[in-house]
Every structure is written in structure tokens, then in C-alpha cells.
């Protein structure tokens, strides 16, 4: 019998649900942030070096910020495997996509796409005209995923990052 190595098998999409993040998710999100395959792609402040407890508090403060709507992607068994944040200042017509991340053990199985679909659908329902984000220009994978979800290049945002924007469909 011929067997195919797991790494070569087409990956099966993961059926995740998206729900609002709560304080109990802060530690899990901090753990994902600090994973070696995730952290280099996120623009984390220096406090991320202060250990998991400190970074968990930072994640809790992040979710409680009234400008932030932070959601998590959850497997049927309840495990949190990713997150994204829709940021919006009251009264402003634009929003931002922040801190998209998926546990590397669950990447390439549609979780990032599901989080981004939630983000753009929610932004459209809120009537936001534009959604902005900044991405390291070496992060080809994330750039391709954003492009598939309607974001286009909008110029450099720093020496290493590009800004992308998605306009609300008219
Ligand atoms: C970028 C990131 C969020 C993408 O998450 P993801 O869950 O892997 O995203 P998806 O699975 O939805 O899509 C990514 C790939 O899987 C493929 N894919 C999408 N749905 C799929 C499915 N149902 N089954 C199999 N593959 C699928 C896509 O074609 C895509 O392939 P490609 O990038 O090689 O062209 C994730 O890699 C990550 O957390 N990276 C580190 C942090 C980061 O870079 N964040 C962005 C900061 S700006």
C-alpha cells in the first residue's frame, strides 16, 4: 500500500467559529503572540520581552480598549487558535485591521481567511468606508491573504512595512 506523508496531503479546512474575545482568552492569545513562528511577523512592543504573565495583562488591556473589537477563532472543542482585532475610533469613517494571528499548528487551513472574512463583513455592516492595515513587506503570505480579501497596496507605512487598504464596496 502506498501512503502519503502527512506533510504532502492536502490540508483539510478547519471549521472554526468566530466569537468575541474575553479576559479568559488573554493568556492563550499571549502564548500565540510569543510563538517563534508568529512573533517576528507582529510589531510587538518591548513589553513582550517581559514574560508571559506581563504579556497576558497586555493582551487583556488590549481587548478592554473601547476602540478594539477583538475576536477569536475557536475549534469545535473550544480551543482558541487565532485572533484578529477591528479597531475604530468613535465617529471616524475608517477602521483598522490589527494583530491577525493563527497558531502555526493550525495555519494553511482557512483560519486566517475566516478571521479576515469576519473583519470585512463586520466593517461593511458598520458602514466603515475604509479598512487599513500595516504589514511587513517581507510577509508575502499575509500580503497574499489580505489581497485575496480585497486589500490593495497603499504605500509604505515605515521603512519595513507597507500600508494596505480595503474600500467598502459601493
Ligand atoms: C498570516 C496568517 C494569519 C495566515 O493564517 P492562515 O490560517 O494560515 O490563513 P489561511 O489558511 O486562511 O490562508 C493561508 C493559506 O492557506 C490556503 N488555504 C486557505 N484556505 C484553505 C483551506 N480551507 N484548506 C487548505 N488551505 C487553505 C490559502 O490558499 C493560503 O495559501 P498561500 O498563503 O500559501 O497562498 C498566519 O500565517 C499567521 O498567523 N502568521 C504569523 C502572524 C502574521 O503574519 N500576521 C499578520 C501580521 S500583518
What's the Cα radius of gyration?
16 Å
> Could you give me the name of the CATH homologous superfamily?
Gcn5-related N-acetyltransferase (GNAT)
Count of individual beta strands? 7
Reported by name, the CATH topology is Aminopeptidase
The percent range for strand residues is 25-35%
Q: Give me the side-by-side strand order of the main sheet.
A: 1-2-3-4-5-7-6
Provide the domain count. 1
Q: Can you name the CATH architecture?
A: 3-Layer(aba) Sandwich
Bound compounds, each kind once, are: coenzyme A
**What percent of residues adopt helix (DSSP H or I)?**
25-40%
CATH class wording: Alpha Beta
**Major sheet characteristics:** 7 strands, mixed
Describe the protein's architecture and organization.
- The chain is of the alpha+beta class and 170 residues long.
- It has a single domain (16-167), classed as 3-Layer(aba) Sandwich (Aminopeptidase).
- Helices cover 27% and strands 28% of the residues.
- It has helices at residues 26-33, 52-64, 111-126, 140-148; strands at residues 17-20, 68-74, 80-87, 94-102, 130-136, 152-156, 161-167.
- It has a seven-stranded mixed sheet with strand order 1-2-3-4-5-7-6, with helices on both faces.
- Strand 3 (80-87) and strand 4 form a beta hairpin.
- The radius of gyration is 16 Å and the shape is globular.
- The relative contact order is 0.14.
- The model has no long low-confidence stretch (mean pLDDT 94).
- Bound molecules: coenzyme A (COA).
- Coenzyme A binds next to strand 4, helix 3 and helix 4.
